[in-house]
Specification:
The protein is α+β, with helices and mostly antiparallel strands. It is 34% helix and 26% strand. It has three domains: 117 residues, no CATH class; 272 residues, Immunoglobulins (Immunoglobulin-like, Sandwich), CATH 2.60.40; 149 residues, Serine Threonine Protein Phosphatase 5, Tetratricopeptide repeat, CATH 1.25.40. β22 and β23 form a beta hairpin. The relative contact order is 0.08.
Length: 689
Amino acid sequence: MKKKLILLSWLILFLISVLPAFSNKEKKLPKDLPERYKKWLQQEVVYIITPKEKEVFLQLEGDRERNMFTDAFWKVRDPEPSTPKNEFREEHYGRINYANLWFGRGTPTQGWRTDMGRIHIKLGEPNSIQRYENMTQVYPTIVWFYQGLGEYGLPNSFNVVFFKKYGTGDYETYSPIKDGPQVLLVHYLGDPRDYLGAFNQLRNIQPQLAQVSISLIPGEPMPSLSPSMASEILMSNIEVKPHKAVEDQYAEQLLKYKDIIEVEYTANYIGSDYLVSVIPEKSGVSFVHYLVEPKKLSVNFAENKYYTVLEISGKVTDLEGKTIYQYNKSIPIEFDEEQLEKIKTKPFRLQDTFPLIEGNYKFNLLLKNKVSKEFTSVEKDLLVSSFESSEEMTSLILALSAKNVLSIKSNKPFKVEDIQLYPSARNEFTIHDRLIIFFQIPGISGELRESGRLEFLFYKGEQEFLRKAKEIKSYPKKGQFLEEFSLEKFPPAIYRVEVSVLSKENKEILFEQAHFSVSFAEVIPRPFLYSELAPSSLDPLTDYILGGQYFNKGNHEQAEYFLGKAYRKNPNSLQFAEGFSRILFTAQRFEEAKKILLPFLETSQDDKKFLRLLGQASRKLGQFGEAIDYYKQYLAYYGTNLQILNAIGYCYFSTGNKEEALIAFEKSLEINPKQEEIKKIVSSLKDEK
């Protein structure tokens, strides 16, 4: 089957992650690195590595991590990542070799360490070179002329000047302000601060060099013939030019995820835009809605289809780092030729949603593209309140549009009752768009609903731009607010919108704000949407998820309520039955736990994990024969398991069958001989023979 890797230049995998927060490990000093990595850092990439990259590199441990980093370092600079050749890397090492060959001649300094070597490595070969090296009145001076580097914040054309101070040593970079034309003259007897006098003397000797000595930028207006700051700014920008050519966010992500993602992914981090919002429903259940727009998506081509498989891992932890909820999804994405043509100029957006109990959390998402081995991640702090019991205001959602939908039972991302919102990932709009502002006050009091009002205040920069007030009772749905504004008269700029909830006495009770921009562009490409459907608040799966979250949080009373609710809605679901049985087992209600699981002995053909729980409950009830039977069925289905073997041994021991107990314990020790307690039991049993 013929396959071809296609790089769509608009998206990067969606999805965000689940892992440890970025930790500031103790950094090593470069001198502490193994020799080859010290050379790599201090010689080979010293002029092109960004401060962030260097900081991360010095926190890595061992050759594996450092090799992983260097692979990623070159990968993000590769102009053609889909080919085996890395043109940037080859060009860079070619520049180093050239510098060592030509710029260190006749001096004890290695070529790459010289000023000429540094500039050549950073900027490459100049477009032209002027040499003033054999003049009796001017110290040896060389002028390099560059063009076409404007994308890095440099002038479209400029010069870099090198000179030998007092006619000896290495060539040094020249600064019109710090040095001045007087340092180029062999016999200048005037005031060292008299730039004009030195310029006139140099102009009489070499007019072209005199002009460059005052300004490195051709055509710069020089009314007073004194050096301007423009040349100094140019030299500073040259030093950081390599940093502007790379997005170094990947380095922090590599440091975060190096221990949990496969090696082949670590060099392929891609950025993404995202939005995460908590939206409470009338049922009292809050859902986390999120969208991710990757910068790039890579797909394969086979059998006339373009496809990839995205893997999502989501994780919610509390402020102490305890896992409250986590999930994994595998999402196949497929396009035909016609669909690909329609979307290749659009961003790709993945949207999803899940229920979450009240509390303060950190939400992490990790998205992996199985085809291209790329990944992206997002982290977000979440606050889920018990909205119905308090008068609180949700964050503002800024959307491009909102549509009424017929069904209120299905649950899609950013759907609230019968309204489907289409948010902007970057809060970016055009003057032709309409701005939708959506928020909720689920626990709004009757008094505030009747006598309160909303105030929308727009700022352009720090200047008030627009103000609008509206009575709360004019909104048809209690606690739900949607307001629409035309952006036709909003000049392109960055804006801030503030929404205040005011009481009858005009006192501000609640407040939220958000920033957005109006673009100069006539049209902004809108994303191609892929939305994962989710269970509604009435679905037993939602109850099951909430019950599991309460269990992980340690609230067993609420866990039992929701897990029991899910089971009673669908008692034929092994998933719900097992979840409810576990909480009953935790509450030491072993007989009830068994009763729920026993029917699945006959009906469950593929999933036998519940046999372990049946064995545990039977053992707790002193029904050792049944426990052994369930445990053996488990082993027959899933194979050898250390804990199950030990449990069988204890059950046999409890029934007085020491011979079978010894067999089970000895098999366990074959798997792990370092079990000291089991060793003691085996020794005791053998002594009794």
